[in-house]
Amino acid sequence: MHAPDGFPLAVQTSGLEDGPVLLLLSGQANSHEWWTGLREAYESRFRVVTFDYRGTGGSRGPVGEWSTETFADDAAHVLRELGGGGAAVHGTSMGGRVAQHLAARHPELVGRLVLTCTSPGGPHAVERSPAVRKRLADDEQRGRVLRELFYTDAWTGESHLFGDPTMTVEESRAHLRASNRHDAWEALPLIQAPTLVLHGTDDLMVPSANAPLLARRIPGATMHLYEGGRHGFFDEFSEDLAPVLDSFLET
Fold first, then answer.
1. Which Pfam families does the record associate with it (predicted)?
2. Which end of the chain lies in a sparser environment, N or C, as judged by fewer CB atoms within 10 Å?
3. Nearest to 87 by CA among 102, 71, 105, 67
């Protein structure tokens, strides 16, 4: 598939061919691999859709000044091409930022919205601390730091959340700029879809104080905080969260 400007977009579908659409949006500098081990839980009930953001996975081309709005419009194009109007959308981390603009800019395409471990961006957001930023800037320790920020000490599994290793430095920096420049504060009241805001209480990457900001700003939104969860809580505690998500998505 190609975006309207010709940029190639790699799209993946699984599950029920004629089922209701569930679009899953991954985090910053990650491809659809982010959802490995998670999408399968929905495949018996949904047509599960993912796509690789520009600069990740199979979506490669000239690097531009991408934004979360760019990625949101790409997501809208994917949904339209697949005939997925009124889709359920679950965005995590930067994917939650993309989902905010998708729901606000293209309300006819989003039937239900889940925003997980994300923030509104801009001056109203609660940003990670300088200490966390310093730790993330240490390239030699980055893998260990990400593991500590995403998962609790009890976690022993394999993660697909630590970035697309095929990205160039230029592509990674373009994603970082897009995420850092995100500001959906004025757009949030335009969201019409029923919205669930999820966050782990111990998230230091995107502090949980952002969850009530989103929940109050989006009309009718509800919020669920997972005690002790870090930035990857939706992966580590996916079985615990399944009843919450299933109840919301299937209502």
1. Abhydrolase_1
2. C
3. 102
* CB-based contact 24:116 (threshold 8 Å): no
Q: Smallest Cα–Cα separation from 176: which of 93, 72, 105?
A: 93
Q: What is the pTM of this model?
A: 0.96
What are the backbone angles phi and psi of residue 195, rounded to the nearest 5°?
-130, 135
Kindly list the structural domains of the chain, giving each domain's residue range(s) and its CATH number in brackets, ordered by start. 11-250 (3.40.50.1820)
Say if CB 32 and CB 50 are below 8 A apart: yes
List, in sequence order, the alpha helices (H) in the chain.
Answer: 68-82, 94-105, 130-136, 142-150, 169-180, 210-217, 233-236, 238-250
DSSP string, 149-190: HHS-TT--S--S-S--TT--HHHHHHHHHHHHT-B-TTTGGG
Tokens of 73: 């419009």
pLDDT by 10s per residue, the chain, length 251: 999 999 999 999 999 999 999 999 999 999 999 999 999 999 999 999 999 999 999 999 999 999 999 999 999 999 999 987 799 999 999 999 999 999 999 999 999 999 999 999 999 999 999 999 999 888 788 889 999 999 999 999 899 999 999 999 999 999 999 999 999 999 999 999 999 999 999 999 999 999 999 999 999 999 999 999 999 999 999 999 999 999 999 87
243 and 250 in contact (C-beta within 8 Å)? no
